[in-house]
Specification:
Strand content: 25-35%
Largest sheet: 5 strands, parallel
Shape: globular
Helix content: 25-40%
CATH class of the largest domain: Alpha Beta
CATH architecture of the largest domain: 2-Layer Sandwich
CATH topology of the largest domain: D-amino Acid Aminotransferase, Chain A, domain 1
Number of domains: 4
Structural class: alpha+beta
Radius of gyration: 20 Å
Number of strands: 24
Oligomer: single chain
Amino acid sequence: MKILVLGSGAREHAIVTSLLSEEVAHDIVVAPGNAGIAQDVRVETSLDPLDGVAVTEYAIENDIELVVVGPEAPLVAGVADPLRTRGIPVFGPGKVAAQLEGSKTFAKRIMEAAGVPTGRAVRATTIVEAEEALDAFGAPYVIKADGLAAGKGVLVTGDREAAVAHSIQYLRQGSVLIEEFLDGQEVSLFLVSDGHTVLPLAPAQDFKRLLDGDEGPNTGGMGAYSPLPWLPETFVDEVIDTVALPTVRQLAKEQTPFIGLLYCGLIITRHGIRVIEFNARFGDPETQVVLPRLVTPLSELLFGAATGALAGVARPEFAMDVAVTVVLASEGYPEAPLTGRPIRGLDAAAAVPEVTIAHAATAVDAATGDLIATGGRVLSVVARGTTFGEARNLAYDAIRQIDLQGSQYRTDIAARVAD
């Protein structure tokens, strides 16, 4: 199959790696890609994934059979719509359905209409409204930017002054949601949807805070692991019945079917499962630990969803092993990452058994030929093992081989399940 993947991060690199592992060979091109992806497949650095018209023209001219939209920004911009209009199978929701991620207010409305369990929230458009909501809910305070914020728009804090400052920062860009604090274990569950049917992938848990012990600021994600041995056996079925299917059916009812990857960010409270957030695409870094364990060919799931053909398809199968990923980030991330620094030691890291490296923000310096860091989260080091202890040891053995000045990573990813 001739497949175009849009995006430039570790999520897209993981998707490409999974597609390349299939028995049937695919012709894959990624736009714009990164230095690591370019080592594996062809990249189109000049094709803008936010330009739906240009992407559609490229797909037609190059006989693309499936377009996979990786990041949230192109989805919220509506890149899938012109592709779908021209009859090109695309894995990713249209502009309106993508508002499940693009607007937390939209997501809350859909959840309310569908009867999906979630926390109480108040939308604020002024600081007065925000402060009233903060005081009504009390500490710990939960403030979320209503729109996209690259994983950095959420603040959970017991400090009211910090909560007010965060509200002011994002009120400059739009509205914010003040939510009740929900306490419990968090779970990420991906579900492939063709607009009517949903198929679950393996649950994962990610680590949002920058520092060990879940300290420091929120990030896009500093690591993840899968599976979750502590989950109840009925968990996935309950999420399908109470969260995923009601959401997909509500969007279909509103004539905006959700076709693509429904990311359910969940928390298990003492009152049951609650939705923290929806995303409209594969999560990063959870994708890096879910897809390596996938036995069912990924291309079949993506194409089946894009063509409305998931009804009657068996649930995806996963290997019995475990996967752990640790994210290497630049100095200064997440507030002000320092970029342009050379990265060394990748060959030694990749030589560690059962380890793969997904590039997130890398490029080749045209002047020196060095591989350099171009963003905050630079690499995801992924390891598989028969136990979490084994996978953790391999991942950390590999990441210690990598030299990036000032780089940072958490040392406690999956530590709890490895004990």
